[in-house]
Structure formats: structure tokens, C-alpha cells
Write a structure and sequence with these properties.
The protein is about 20% helix and about 25% strand. It has about 350 residues and is α/β, with parallel strands linked by helices. A hairpin with an 8-residue loop joins strand 20 and strand 21. The radius of gyration is 20 Å and the shape is globular. The structure holds zinc ion (2 copies). The site of one zinc ion has 5 residues, from loops.
Length: about 350
């Protein structure tokens, strides 16, 4: 990272000294500007948060009632000690953003997590030109190319229908923030009733209140007659898989897991589920390159995932790129606190 630049990497996270604020800090700070509400970007304990208006409700669930949250709608800017800050859609989950930071003609964009694949549950990714572009590289290898999302929704729907014909429940594991809602928005709602784990239900309600179109769901914990689960779809966070007792109440069942990692050989077996569905909220290889070229940056900073590989590829292809070692840990890390009597939502 360029010495004297507007943004630097510190032990607490990416820092703007001129404006005295951090972007997605992983240790408590006075002022946190946050790209989105996933746990490896939104930590609790900061004095003040600035989040995109569109993600306010889910940020509130994530960081608690007592947190001081200021909001800013996409495309509007705020002045923080002479530094111009604005949020732009990242297409990753509801309210996810890229942060644009400008001072003395120097422009940085920290893209957080993003994807270019259309997603009806959030605003589409918007390319923002800058001098310095910070990108993640979760799926930064040429082997990662997502199939059409509709195809994945069809596969999930077919699996659900077939299970229903056999009198089985379909339990699908998906991250409770973003992925779960995307699946419910996209699948064929006419197949049958949908039940949710508490962590999923709370966030789904916040999505609805934010204006996202979602089918009717019922919190699984509120169901008295276990026969109701026959032929239904149950949406749960991956951690619920560990809770055998919780799963038992759904009776005869088939299990599925929706993740970008399901594109990797052996991932389904490793997860010990009946079916794997490839569905990611991150950019695949072509999307990554499209986003990087769209930023038209002098320097690209690559973090997380396959950053050394992406840096090498970019440098060999005429783009100045540098690896950046942040602590963004995972593909949609998920630490939604559990409901009482329910498995932990931690991922
Ligand atoms: Zn992340
Ligand atoms: Zn994320």
C-alpha cells in the first residue's frame, strides 16, 4: 500500500487517517464505515457506525439495539473531516456496498464483497472509477464460473418436488443472511410451505421490511404438529446441521447445501449432505476481471481467498496489483445469535 496514501492497512483494519475512520474494522474503533452486515465485515463494539441506508435493518440485527448507527443512501456523499465518503451497490446481499473515498483528487474504492450476477434481493453492482481499487478474491481462479442462477433455482425446486412425492421434508442449509433469502425469492413458491430456522426468520423479516419480495415463511419453532413438515422446505443456516436433535423433528428428510463451494469436487461429500447446489454471492472469475477493469484503477489491492494468484495474473496482464492481508475471513461468515432451544447460528 502506497506510503502517505489516503488509505492504509493497520492492525484494526483499513484506515483513513485524514478522516480518522476505518472501513470494516475487525477490532473496536471510534468510527467504522461498514460495507455490509456479514460477520467478517460488521463487528460489534465500535463507537459509531456508518452503513448504507438500504442495509440499516439487517445491520441493526447484527450489531444490536444499543449501537450508534448513521446511515447514508447509495450514491449520496458525506463529508468526514474533509474526506468525501459515499456508498455504491455491490450486488452481494441486501444493503451491501462499495465504499468510495475521495480527498484532494485521490479516489479509493473498497468494494467489500460483491458479485455481478443479477440478484432480485439487492441492488445490482455498480462500477465506480477510482485510482485505487480494493477487491476480494474469494473465487479468484479461472476454474470458478457460475452457471445461470435460474438453473440452480430449478435444481432446488426439482429436488424439493421429488422429496415431496416421497413424503420427505427438504432441509436446505444456506447462510442466514443473503443466501437464504435469495433462494426463497428465486424458487418456485407453488411447490409447498416454507419453514425457517430462527436466525433465517429474523433476517427474512428484515428483508421484507426493507421491501424485498419473499414468500410466506413460518418459523419452524412455532409449529406444533410435526406432520406439517412433510413435503415442506426448511431453510436453515449451515451450523444447524450439527444439531441432530433439531433436525430430527422434521422426520423423514433429504438435506441440501447451497454455496459457491459446491462447485468444488468433493464438497458435497465433505459437507455430508444429500445434494449440493452451486449458488454464490461472490464474483466468479469473469466477474472479478470485469469489476477490476471497470474500476480503471492505477493500482488494484487484492485481499482474501486466492489473492496471490489474482495478483500474479493481473501483473502478468498489464494491471498493477498488490496483495493486501486483511482479516476478512470467510465466504459469508455467519454469527447470528441462536434462538432459545435452537442450534447456534454460528458459522
Ligand atoms: Zn466477506
Ligand atoms: Zn459478505
Amino acid at each position: 500500500m502506497k506510503k502517505g496514501g489516503l488509505i492504509s492497512l493497520t492492525p484494526r483494519g483499513l484506515y483513513c487517517k485524514t478522516g480518522d475512520f476505518y472501513i470494516d474494522p475487525w477490532k473496536p474503533v471510534k468510527r467504522a464505515v461498514v460495507t455490509h452486515a456479514h460477520a467478517d465485515h460488521t463487528y460489534r463494539g465500535n463507537e459509531k457506525y456508518l452503513v448504507p441506508k438500504e442495509g440499516e435493518r439487517i445491520s441493526r440485527i447484527r450489531i444490536g439495539d444499543e449501537a450508534i448507527i448513521e446511515t447514508l443512501p447509495y450514491g449520496k456523499s458525506v463529508d468526514i473531516d474533509g474526506v468525501k465518503v459515499s456508498f455504491h451497490p455491490a450486488g452481494h446481499i441486501l444493503g451491501s456496498s462499495q465504499v468510495r473515498i475521495e480527498h484532494n483528487g485521490e479516489v479509493w474504492v473498497i468494494s467489500g464483497d460483491y458479485k455481478l450476477t443479477p440478484d432480485a434481493t439487492c441492488a445490482p453492482f455498480e462500477p465506480v472509477k477510482c485510482h485505487h481499487f480494493v477487491t476480494e478474491a474469494t473465487f479468484g481462479l479461472p476454474i470458478y464460473r457460475w452457471q445461470k442462477t435460474e438453473k440452480t433455482f430449478d435444481e432446488i425446486g426439482d429436488w424439493w418436488r421429488r422429496n415431496q412425492e416421497k413424503g420427505k421434508a427438504s432441509v436446505i442449509f444456506a447462510y442466514s443472511l443473503g443466501k437464504a433469502q435469495r433462494i426463497m425469492n428465486g424458487i418456485d413458491r407453488s411447490i409447498g410451505p416454507i419453514f425457517t430456522h430462527g436466525a433465517v426468520e429474523r433476517l427474512t423479516q428484515a428483508y421484507r421490511e426493507s421491501g424485498v419480495d419473499l414468500p410466506k415463511t413460518t418459523y419452524a419453532g412455532s409449529v406444533e404438529n410435526k406432520k406439517d413438515f412433510v413435503g415442506s422446505l426448511i431453510v436453515a443456516p449451515p451450523s444447524a446441521q450439527q444439531s441432530v436433535g433439531w433436525l430430527r423433528k422434521f422426520g423423514s428428510q433429504s438435506t441440501g447445501f447451497a454455496s459457491g463451494w459446491m462447485a468444488v469436487r468433493g464438497a458435497r461429500r465433505q459437507r455430508a449432505v444429500d445434494r449440493g447446489f452451486v449458488l454464490s454471492d461472490h464474483a466468479d472469475w469473469p466477474e472479478l476481471l470485469t469489476a477490476i477493469s471497470g474500476a480503471e484503477a492505477e493500482t488494484v489491492y487484492v485481499t482474501h481467498g486466492f489473492s496471490p494468484e489474482v495478483v500474479r495474473w493481473l501483473n502478468e496482464n498489464g494491471q498493477h496489483a498488490v496483495e493486501l492481508k486483511t482479516k476478512f475471513v470467510g465466504d459469508d461468515a455467519d454469527d447470528t445469535p441462536p434462538e432459545e432451544g435452537e442450534p447456534d447460528g454460528t458459522e
